[in-house]
Amino acid sequence: MSISIAITDVTVVTGDESGTVHEGWTLLVDSDGTIAYAGPAADVQIPVDAKHLDGVGRFAMPGLINAHAHLFADGRPLSKIALHPATSKIAAFLAKGPLGGVMLRKRVRMNALTQLHTGVTTLRTVGDVSYEVIGLRDQIDAGELVGPRILPSGPLMAITGGHGAPMIAHIADDVDAARKWTRENLDHGARAIKIAATGGVSDAKCIGHAGTPRWTSRR
User: Fold this and answer.
1) Average pLDDT of 33-38?
2) Most buried in the list 37, 62, 69, 126, measured by CB within 10 Å?
3) SS3 96
4) What superfamily would CATH give domain 3-60?
5) Tell me: the pLDDT tens digits for 159-187?
6) Which Pfam families match (predicted)?
7) Eight-class DSSP state of 39
């Protein structure tokens, strides 16, 4: 084991049920990026060739998990063009075209990096425009890009006019279509399947729409 980084005098937030915090601890990180030691400075010898980072006034904590992410967006309200029934199909067509694909891949890379910089080390997407996040996941796993661990869903499944349709959804109005799109997403490398079984918040048309069942129990 080769220690490459030593972080000293850092406050460690454990994230346990009791809210334990350790002040003035030392962290040693090996060449693979694994934390090899976390504890009092007096109990460890720091290798002379390790890169030293001063942790005074800083905090270290376990990575956060974002279990509901959409990397095509950055948290700001979606455009009216994407949400309006009269223009949503056009917006979806453009987003899934060659030029839209280039812009989309750039956006998901930026948003994934933003997630990492805010402490998220694992995230699950639950509705993508196409399979752009699966491609990003593969690049990160291959070491070609820096980013969090990603469990991508690919496009979600919804009924015609349902939540997310048509921008980020496969249309599944019956059982056969649901099976077809599930196989399609899994074949592309999806690690999660998102089903919009109820109305959503972003495209709700009236009070009470969000959360209202849209799929039958058989589906």
Assistant:
1) 93
2) 69
3) coil
4) Urease, subunit C, domain 1 (2.30.40.10)
5) 888 887 778 889 999 999 999 999 999 99
6) Amidohydro_1
7) E
